[in-house]
Specification:
43% helix, homotetramer, alpha/beta, 12 helices
């Protein structure tokens, strides 16, 4: 399998929702919803993608020859690469009806675990999505991160019970989902949480808790204050609010602010192992890649997911060799140019 | 009605003057006059539009859940949103002969008032435009802002008499109209006003007075010195002078300079509620949107105007929720990235 | 006559050498030589043009109403506008064989004088060009600026004798012509001049002397030291050296350095009265426009030249009104945004 | 021969691998491998090319007339221009099967020597390439720079024996070749070298040693510490690591850091004598041009190589005349604008 073949195959199932572009940069799908596009003027995904291109890597091959160690400790789980497949929901609506959310997560969670990484799973209107995701994660020994929407406290209590089945070691919430159309008119209302409410939720979860959708230093510090153990610097690929800054632009200050106690992940337009390297150099511990994993799965099922993971992971390893980083901890700001 | 349908319908009446583009950015109509385009090299409207895109909003949903309050006190009148429809003149010439200025203003003023906002009405060569606009505003209980051209003192005296009929609470003058071709060769001459002349005019108006067409700190301070209660930071959409800076570029310094005593409005390329949010974060109290209201009216008559107002207003409300601003007063510079 | 008609007509005679583009920006003729294009990568003319677009004008119409005074004292001659038609040579080769240099200068010099401005005339391989140009200038009472190439001293002595016939009050030399192919292999060699050589030439000229082709502060100070009374900040439209900075970029420092004793002109991509205004705000006393005058002449003969002069001149007057500059001396750096 | 004819002829043999573009800027071949394109996102070559365009030259022709001296002392060899043809390998695969590496080097080395400059020759999987290159260099009196890959110490010992035959005065190693696919899985492993290993290699070479592929100050200082007499600031045209900075961006700091003791060459997107001038102004002593020499050779064999060398060399001489640099040593940072 080549990446081109994977894309060609994916296109059969995903068009016209997603064009499975050679580089997934948000241009062909600007403002397409349903579809993978971003909201409003639709430049959110473009900016995410382009911001990484403005950061360059400092090649230096005068160092001892080594095989780079790309492994990553994720709350006690050893991952092969600091790469996660992102949570997506309503795949049939946004990417084509070859799969529904349950089928999609079943394939994704296992394929990722087999590839040595973990998938974040999505949450939705229908309970069954989370039920199935939890089962899939459980079947992989807890390798996966169930991600719940910012429901009201009672709903969340039920959600966390389902999550419990997954045997996962971490749970996440995409708190920015407040901006998704389908969550707007919920009763009881969903969305934003005060620090106090979030602290309650973190306790209720009973596991290390990751808040996804942080774009400011203030927000990161509030998540930290609420007891979260990790954050995902994310603007939800431009799908919840139009015209945010790119995640690469805000990452360095946020990573600096939270210090070393928190797990910092980042998503948005990361499309190669070189980009992963840059994210780590800017202070992230790992990255989430979302849309391209959908393409990989639609185009190549389990094999596609594994192939894509190895592609990105090996690009990261190559970059580490060419810049002199033996392990992920060696990757630092001096290794990039911006 | 969707916005797409509204645009499709508008295009029937507006082409080839205006193409009713999905995003009204001044590109398709560069230097088209008559038509909606801007003057000379025609990049005035483009730059206005693009400058807003360079300002990004800081998403943060860790805060108590609230319903944002978008209401706005405009010289004692309570508005649903800090949004005004802009004054336009010679609509039949610039946008298509479905309407003349009298018909256009009649529809616009009432539809805006019904939608909870106010329209600025234009002024022209023919007395009847202002007569009719004043009547339309009066019929809506004074909801509307009659806008006069910078005529000589005697002509203005007559204009203000007509304005009196409108029962409006504010009156405006687009002092930059000096640069419009049709005002160039007037006798007596029209155009620029000294601070002293402007002070006389402000007195003559006998109501809170807004000077539209301010692009410099100096100009703003002169308007303030002349007794104006408000300004509109505006380059007339590029139609009176080629190659001005964009309004977003000059707004922050101007808003800082005039302090809190003046009502600061801004126009030029504001095309979404996210843009409205940014304008307020940069120091404006409200915004004027001109060309897209013409499109909304040509494409959907009263309903179009109301639909468009709700579209922009709800986008503003969404942005407030996603950035943690409960009321317009909460929107501040920390909520944007630039 | 409209400008569009003038261009349409010009195109008949100038294609394929020059496309008489709506805005003459060096894009359609990149690296076309013979033709109007610039040398090498050909981005010299583009950059000149674009640099002016990055400078914006500060509209402010709160000031007394006035008719702007655009007149300009050019070494004792009163000009209607601070605008000069530029020197061009080998017009038949570069712009089409409707005219040769002698015919071209005959028309241009008279039309400019009639329009209240002056033309710079070019110099070339054949003596007759300067002979005819001098006669044409003499016939207009000395209104015109003969421009000689940087020949060797003996040749220049003869050239200045011819120039004497013109009764002109100023003479110029395009010292950067060293980079033109046709001057490269002259015997005796032509081109660069030391300060001492230049001082000799200035004396020999016996009139106020302008050095054209200054792009650095150092060069300007050397011209001043050699006794020149004026300089033209110019990169010869990109035709003598590839990849110079734009003239707008280097003008401010140069104007600052030479102080008020020297006449500072600038050329390169100035295509509207708004651009002329900006050049003056950046420290120039006047501007030279070259290619568009060729188009005006090919497209409209004498009338074309006059029409184009009034077009640019009136745009300058409009800009002065809209920015509050009563006379050219009032135009200052506070009136632009950059 | 014109350059256009040379390109037209080259295209016959090089398409579809290389399009022999009028300006070789990496755009038509983005990410084409095999082929001349760069790796990954493929913007490496583009950025190299464009960075030079952002640096402009300061024209100043007020100076004594001179014939510029472009000669260059390269480790005791007098070169006509500070220009080298770059090492390429697997030409049949990347550029078309008109030539193989042995044939290509045979023509290139001699043509360069005849033109007064030197060629770097490539190294590959097959011993015969270096054998033949060494013979070709020997036949030209040692004019040429054999360039070896970063093999393991034993392999290098053999390579250096072959190099000995060439009678060359300098030898080079492209240490960044670690990132080339064909070197990845070698046994014993090839690639990065520690300072100590490099110092051993430098000694083993027994001649002045140039390390090619330096992109950081740190790397340059390590090469210096290892005893190298020269470096080539190079990102291998984007072919070994995606998304490096451009060489023009990193050159000035590196040249500053190593001081005057080291020979500093630079490659990447240098496509004219004006670019060569800029490189020298930024601190380089000479430049390497790779892809265009392939085109010159495929399109014009020996004559093509000589023609291209004279083209670039004369452009450099012209630029020196127009900026007042009598010799290469006169070219300094004051002569550029950036």
């Amino acid at each position: 399998m080549t990446y081109q073949e994977l894309l060609d195959n994916a296109r059969k199932y995903m068009q016209p929702h997603c064009m499975a572009c050679p580089e997934c940069n948000g241009k062909a799908c600007t403002n397409k919803m349903p579809g993978p596009g971003s909201k409003g003027s639709g430049d959110g995904a473009n900016r995410n993608y382009e911001a990484w291109k403005d950061i360059r890597v400092n090649m230096d091959t005068i160092h001892p020859l080594f095989e780079p160690d790309t492994t990553f400790d994720f709350f006690g789980q050893k991952m092969k690469y600091p790469i996660f497949a992102g949570p997506v929901g309503a795949v049939n609506m946004h990417y084509g009806d070859k799969y529904n959310d349950v089928e999609y997560n079943n394939i994704l969670v296992k394929a990722c675990a087999d590839a040595g990484i973990a998938a974040f799973t999505g949450d939705g209107m229908f309970q069954e999505v989370l039920v199935a995701a939890s089962k899939a994660i459980a079947a992989c020994g807890g390798c996966g991160v169930p991600t719940v929407k910012p429901w009201d406290a009672n709903t969340l209590k039920e959600k966390f019970k389902l999550v419990e089945e997954s045997n996962c070691s971490v749970v996440a919430m995409d708190i920015d989902a407040a901006g998704l159309p389908f969550l707007k008119n919920c009763d009881p209302p969903t969305g934003a949480k005060s620090v106090e409410e979030l602290a309650e939720i973190v306790k209720m979860a009973g596991k290390p808790f990751i808040v996804k959708g942080i774009m400011t230093v203030k927000g990161a510090l509030k998540a930290q204050k609420a007891g979260a153990k990790g954050i995902v610097v994310s603007n939800h690929g431009g799908r919840v609010l139009d015209q945010c800054p790119s995640t690469a632009e805000v990452l360095p200050d946020i990573a600096d602010a939270v210090g070393d106690d928190m797990m910092v992940l980042v998503d948005g337009g990361i499309r190669s192992g070189v980009d992963v390297f840059k994210a780590l150099a800017l202070g992230a511990h790992g990255v989430i890649i979302a849309r391209p994993y959908v393409t990989a799965l639609y185009g190549g099922v389990e094999e596609g997911v594994k192939f894509y993971t190895e592609k990105i992971g090996q690009e990261l390893a190559d970059t580490m060799k060419m810049c002199g980083a033996k392990s992920l901890a060696d990757i630092n700001e001096e290794m990039i140019w911006w």
